[in-house]
DNA sequence: TTATTAATTAAACGTTTGATTAAAATTCGG
DNA sequence: CCGAATTTTAATCAAACGTTTAATTAATAA
């Protein structure tokens, strides 16, 4: 049986982390079904049985990959929200930036492998299968609900349905620049470049805030006409 | 050898279509790697060798699934663009609606299986692997370029980079409501409902247009500050 | 040192995968 | 009704899959 993470000693840590890193890349590149444990073990330079030794099966390995990163992002988002609402009600721009920046910054952190995880978020965020929805619900629904409430406080004209829509739209826009499909560069003949973090944040925040304000102005849900 | 589609007779047509329908569902639900030809054949109620008989291999089957639908959507988008620019330069709202409506409507057409294809678009549109990028480039890049040009004509303040960004953001927002992940319903406690086509179109168009206008106002790319 | 535990290994398990084959059934023009 | 072309079938292939096992090595505690 593998020891709890805190008690682990010697070589153990390296293998455990190497497996998680390799799995992150594999799931991001090929999806759950397309990623193979054999290839993951090979990429991590580890015996194939070690994957099951530490993570039991493919499903739990997938969950472990998501949980490691989600903790980071949620913590940073929570702190940002606390700070924002400490004194008064912030501007919409500041709120939306606080929501999106942690994810965008992680996605740009190639050295830490954040780009692979960014593609993985895009994957399970847009997948309807049970496993994807489970990790989304467990790891991102709590902060999503808090963010939606925050949106409604900042924009009193925003109903709950519009706030949910606005939040999901904003996230979807942010994720679209992180999928690293190369399509933006292709369609713009190289004019678009996602590598500049600050420029990306500014662009996405501007787009999302304008969109959310539009949802607040017009009322699109539950119309009685 | 399978006959060309036009000359086909008898049950052939049925098998061919049944395979394509089943493959569409499988790829949408499980991704390329997670979908199995055996399960597709079983779902289509067809011998497993028939899949290779008509589509040679898994890759070409995947391409065939996309090509069938992309033709429809592109044709409708092209016609809409022709009509819009026939007399004068249209309003941004009309242009964006013309771009997004065909896809959204297809995604709501459950009887024709459009919901499965909608999820499939989301899949390969957000995937960075070679196969996904190939089908995106072959089937959707031409209309994307035409749409981007149209955006720049409607909004003269929009640079090429911003137009590409705006187009991709708008598409991404539209696709996010089509992934049918059930997340919107979950986060809104049932308040959000994607089944109303007109309401969905109106909401997405309003969000996207406001966002695109924001990109035109502020200049976010190639700043020299 | 010895006993215990954790980490790692190579090998194999049964199953499923994408793909191929050759024969059988069906369809259809002449 | 015949013969050729097309469609369908069952059987099979090697390869890859996720997972398990038993044995071995390395580290820790008594």
Automatic annotation (TrEMBL), chains A, B:
Keyword Nuclease: no
Organism annotation: Hoeflea poritis
Residue ranges of the annotated DNA-binding region, renumbered to this chain: 36-55
Keyword DNA repair among UniProt keywords: no
Keywords: DNA-binding
Official protein name in the record: TetR/AcrR family transcriptional regulator
Record domain HTH tetR-type: where: 13-73
Domain of life: Bacteria
Residues spanning the signal sequence: none
Organism placement in taxonomy: Bacteria, Pseudomonadati, Pseudomonadota, Alphaproteobacteria, Hyphomicrobiales
